[in-house]
Amino acid sequence: MTMISSHCISSHSITKIYSVLSWFAWMVSFHLKQNFISIAVVETPGVMGDQKRHKILMVSDFFYPNFGGVENHIYYLSQCLLKLGHKVVVLTHAYGNRSGVRYMTGGLKVYYIPWKPFLMQNTLPTFYGTLPIMRTILIREKISLVHGHQAFSTLCHEALMHARTMGYKVVFTDHSLYGFADVGSIHMNKVLQFTLADVSQAICVSHTSKENTVLRSGLPPEKVFVIPNAVDTAMFTPAPEKLSHNEIVIIVISRLVYRKGADLLVEVIPEICRLFSNVRFIVGGDGPKRVRLEEMREKNSLQDRVEMLGAVPHARVRSVLISGHIFLNSLINLPDIMVLYKS
């Protein structure tokens, strides 16, 4: 048996080890695929036979009761598909005591599997740890299509890998833009190349997002489609009465994280308040950067001019938006900003 010495491994050796591991993972996936294809076909007869009524499994780490654009996208897309006569099931991880099977509006079935998040609502990567429960759900619900959402989601990547191993059609939707230079982006792009190597189709929410996804994942452009997000105009109507202009109210609604530009708000808000004495801010949203905003408010004595609402339920977004004169967007790298449309 060859022993690896304890001295520092060169970059060339790391590359060779990575290649061997990638080959090994492919062989395992190929072996499992050969074993599971027959099982999937035998135990789910007629899954692909009915072309008019699909059975779709939506998978992501991000779903209700968590707030966010991906969560709303999955929910409303599922509701529209249910109205068209398709069967839709959602798979996500447990949120606190919310575990097991739950039913939502329109008969939407949600599996909250007993996986606990470890960072920013993401579950710990296990590669094949979720395969048994994933296989059980795919066969029990007679799924014909697996639809994964968001490149950040660990559960999404594992579901796509397992579904292709079992011979199912898979679709991936990317909701965000990512860079190429920082360590996090480099790691995520490598994961995308591995996971999306065998997807059936991919969806992006803008043409910029499509270009970004094609460059990062290496997918053929003809496999990537652009479907822009939409807004229910019945839910977001203008205010019935005009607001007074004695005081200018600026509204900010987003998750308070780096990608949403929370650090920019920390620098901009004190400067605007210094230049304009009749300006007041209302900040809706929660996240790790909320502490910085609260520290900024106390440091500059702006408690009476900067109101922090915390997490805002989707049903209350309109009432917050119509309470101000200006909507301020500080997002850094999102391809399709839904809250701008709502504003």
The portion of residues assigned to helices is 25-40%
Q: Could you tell me the strand content as a percent range?
A: 15-25%
* Count of spatially separate domains: 2
CATH superfamily of the largest domain: Glycogen Phosphorylase B
What's a quick, concise take on this entry?
This protein has 343 residues and is of the alpha/beta class. The chain is 37% helix and 19% strand.
Description of the structure:
The radius of gyration is 23 Å and the shape is globular. 37% of the residues lie in helices and 19% in strands. It has two domains: 207 residues, Glycogen Phosphorylase B (Rossmann fold), CATH 3.40.50.2000; 95 residues, Rossmann fold. The N terminus is likely disordered. α3 packs across α4 and α7 packs parallel to α8. The chain has ten helices and 14 strands. The protein is of the alpha/beta class and 343 residues long. The longest helix is centred in the first third of the chain and has 33 residues. The chain starts with 10 loop residues before the first helix and ends with a helix. The strands form three sheets. Strands 3-4-2-1-7-8-9-10 form an eight-stranded mixed sheet, with helices on both faces. Strands 13-12-11-14 form a four-stranded parallel sheet. Strands 5-6 form a two-stranded antiparallel ribbon. Keywords: Glycosyltransferase, Transferase. Pfam families: Glycos_transf_1, PIGA. InterPro entries: Glyco_trans_1, PIGA_GPI_anchor_biosynthesis. This is Phosphatidylinositol N-acetylglucosaminyltransferase subunit A. One of its GO terms (biological process) is GPI anchor biosynthetic process.
